[in-house]
Write a structure and sequence with these properties.
The chain is an alpha+beta fold. It has eleven helices and five strands.
């Protein structure tokens, strides 16, 4: 292969890799220590402040999936309007839940990272987190990704989000009150800050044990198996 052809091939590879993640915020991130992702309470939850309201605590707990005795955490930094987050969700999420979460070996948490390039991403996060208050985050999470191509082109997606919440048997009066007051927005903003502080610069990004991965093609399953092995658990084959 000639030098020019080699450079072209390298450029194509970098381009294809870059197209597997959404990145639109030009922000500076703190120097990332991979071990920071291990501190899930710090990476996921909003800072615990005296007098923190019960609604925020419920919303925070509602976006965690799995047995409390699980030896490995998987934290997903994601944007509901990012097409690559949807791509990863559609291809990999259900399988990981079946093989690792439902078998009691992994706990999974969602870290809201709505990028400014996606105008409806933050309202979508609010819709999911207001559902999380009622322990309906994960059904809403799935519904938002399933209908992404519909609501992303709407001038206002709020009526669509209302329909999705209703279809997922959310108590609507409380959910609408939560949405109208933007009650979970501080938690979402804290998520965004923490995602950046832990080194996430694009979505989807994943923290598995001490490892950080990015992109829709990230080998999250392999990272989980490595983390389980390091924790002394047998990976599922």
């Amino acid at each position: 292969m000639t030098r020019s052809a080699s450079r072209a091939a390298t450029a194509l590879l970098l381009l294809s890799t870059g197209l597997l993640a959404c990145s639109g915020d030009k922000t500076q991130t703190a120097d990332a220590k991979p071990a920071a992702a291990k501190q899930v309470g710090g990476a996921v939850a909003a800072p615990a402040q005296p007098g923190q309201d019960t609604l925020s605590r419920l919303a925070d707990r509602g976006r965690i999936l799995g047995d409390s005795s699980a030896t490995v955490w998987v934290v997903m930094a994601s944007d509901f309007q990012c097409p690559f987050c949807k791509q990863w969700h559609d291809a990999a999420f259900a399988g990981l839940v079946k093989d690792y979460v439902n078998t009691g070996r992994v706990r999974m948490a969602f870290l809201n990272m709505p990028l400014s390039m996606h105008q409806h991403a933050k309202p979508a996060s609010e819709a999911a987190m207001c559902a999380a208050v009622q322990n309906k985050f994960w059904p809403m999470h799935d519904s938002l990704f399933a209908t992404q191509k519909i609501w992303e082109v709407l001038e206002s997606p709020l009526s669509m989000f209302d329909t999705l919440a209703n279809e997922n048997h959310v108590e609507m009066a409380a959910w609408r009150d939560c949405m109208s007051k933007h009650a979970t927005l501080p938690l979402i903003e804290a998520d965004l800050d923490r995602a950046r502080q832990t080194g996430a610069s694009s979505t989807p990004s994943f923290f598995v044990g001490t490892m950080k991965l990015s992109g829709a093609d990230a080998n999250v399953r392999g990272a989980i198996d490595s983390a389980l092995k390091a924790a002394g658990a047998k990976p599922k084959r």
